Amino acid sequence: MLLLDPVRSRPALESETARAARARSKIHRALEQLAFLSHEIRIAYGSSFWWWRYFTVWTTPRFWVVGPYRINRFFYILLGKSWPAIRFFLSPLLFLFRPWSGPSSIYYTADIGKGLYVSHPCLGLTLYPYLVCGRNLRLGGGNCIGAREKLKPGDVVLGDNVTLGVNAVILGPVRIGSNVTVGANAVVIKDVPDGMCVSGVPARPSWGSSSACRKHGLTDCANANSLNPAETRERR
C-alpha cells in the first residue's frame, strides 16, 4: 500500500485546486461575453424584441459591430495567446464576412463591460486595444477611442454609463469617470470626473459639479453649474 506524505502532497493538491479554479474562472469569464451579447441584442431591439429575433439579428448592422467583438473576445479569453494564431488560419473564412462588418474595428483585447450599444453603426468606429470600460457604454457612431502616444494597458479607462455623441473622440492616456456624457464632435484629451458633460475641441465641461472641477483641476468651467439642465428649467 502506497502511503503519501501529507506535508509533501499538500502543495501539489493546492496547486491542482488553484489550476482548476483558474480554469473555471476563465470559462466563466468567456461565457460571460456570450451573455453580454445576448443582453446587447435585446437592448438593440428594445421593447420590440421577440425570441425569433435571435435568428434574424445577424442581418442588422448593430450585430456586425458588437457581435464579432464579443465572439472574438470569448475565444481570446478561452484560448489566450493562441487565439491570434488561430485567427490567422481562419482569415480566409473570416474574410467572407467582411462585407457585413462595416467600417468598425473593436479589438478583442479591449475589456468592455455589459451593455455596449451603438446608435448609428454605419458611421463606423474604432476602439483602442487597451481600452478598459465599465458597463453600459453608449456610442453615437463615428467614434474613436484611441491614443496620442504609445500606451500600455490601463492608460485608457472609462467608467460606467459613459455616452459618446456622434463623431466624439477620446485620445489617451485619459480616465473618464462614470455617468459622463461627451458631446457630438468633441475631442477629449484630459481626465473627466464623474457626472460631467463635456463638449468642444478640446473638450471642456458643459455642466457638472464645481467641487468635481476643483478636485480634478478643471479651472475652465466657471459657468458649469449655470448650464445644468435642472437649473435651466428652474430659471424658466
Describe the structure.
- This protein is an alpha/beta fold.
- It is globular.
- A hairpin with a 4-residue loop joins strand 14 and strand 15.
- It has one domain: UDP N-Acetylglucosamine Acyltransferase, domain 1 (3 Solenoid).
- The protein is 38% helix and 18% strand.
Top keywords for this entry?
alpha/beta, UDP N-Acetylglucosamine Acyltransferase, domain 1, about 20% strand, globular
Topology:
Blueprint: H1 6-45, H2 61-79, H3 82-95, H4 98-101, E1 104-106, E2 111-112, E3 117-118, E4 125-127, E5 131-133, E6 138-139, E7 143-147, E8 156-158, E9 163-164, E10 169-172, E11 174-176, E12 181-182, E13 187-188, E14 197-199, E15 204-207, H5 210-215, H6 229-235
Parallel strand pairs: 1-4, 2-5, 3-6, 4-7, 5-8, 6-9, 7-10, 8-11, 9-12, 10-13, 12-14
Antiparallel strand pairs: 14-15
* CATH architecture descriptor text: 3 Solenoid
Tally the beta strands: 15
Strand order of the largest sheet: 3-6-9-12-14-15
Broad CATH class: Mainly Beta
Overall tally of domains = 1
Class from helix and strand fractions:
alpha/beta
Which ranges are low-confidence, i.e. pLDDT below 50, for 5 or more consecutive residues? 222-236
Oligomer: single chain
CATH homologous superfamily caption: Hexapeptide repeat proteins
Radius of gyration, in angstroms, nearest whole number: 22 Å
